[in-house]
């Protein structure tokens, strides 16, 4: 895709990532979220947060209490987000599998993102399965960003070939 993308057409009940703001917005989420790894559900909650940013599917953050004991192992390194600040990482660990640096958190997020202090987001591509309201999500394309694609979110999405300049 060259140039600026044309937003996908919407059906009733859908939202466009091209209507999301930049800088991104944090909003509370009330609904079912699950994460599976190594043949078991390692996290489950009925509340969390979504970060909504132009051209990106939502990134979901779960309270740390949503994760089973022992599945979070602090991982080395950090990264910087221009909007949220310094991210710390977790390996996700079960008896059957380790997903290295598949989870991340902001321990001291920037102004406006304080509600997600210590909450954890997960790279859907690095685990067996993630669901939102019972629907299995697709990872955001490209392998770099942490958004979760569901049937009610339309793109095109940052991360597809040709989207670098968006």
TrEMBL record:
Residues 34-124 form the DUF427 domain. InterPro entries: DUF427 (IPR007361), DUF427_sf (IPR038694). Transmembrane segments: none annotated. Coiled coil: none annotated. Residues 1-21 are annotated as: Disordered. Pfam families: NTP_transf_9 (PF04248). It comes from the Bacteria. PANTHER family: DUF427 DOMAIN-CONTAINING PROTEIN, SLR0655 PROTEIN. This is DUF427 domain-containing protein. It comes from Mycolicibacterium hodleri. The lineage of its organism: Bacteria, Bacillati, Actinomycetota, Actinomycetes, Mycobacteriales.
């Amino acid at each position: 895709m060259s140039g600026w993308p044309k937003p996908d057409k919407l059906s009733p009940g859908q939202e466009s990532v091209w209507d999301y703001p930049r800088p991104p917005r944090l909003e509370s989420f009330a609904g079912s979220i699950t994460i599976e790894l190594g043949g078991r559900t390692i996290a489950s909650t009925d509340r969390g947060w979504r970060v909504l940013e132009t051209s990106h599917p939502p990134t979901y953050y779960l309270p740390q209490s949503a994760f089973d004991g022992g599945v979070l192992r602090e991982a080395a390194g950090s990264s910087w987000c221009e909007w949220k600040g310094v991210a710390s990482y977790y390996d996700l660990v079960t008896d059957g599998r380790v997903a290295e640096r598949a989870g991340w958190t902001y321990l001291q997020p920037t102004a406006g993102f304080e509600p997600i202090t210590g909450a954890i987001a997960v790279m859907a591509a690095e685990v067996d399965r993630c669901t939102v309201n019972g629907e299995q999500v697709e990872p955001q394309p490209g392998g770099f960003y942490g958004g979760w694609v569901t049937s009610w979110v339309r793109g095109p999405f940052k991360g597809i070939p040709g989207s670098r300049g968006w």
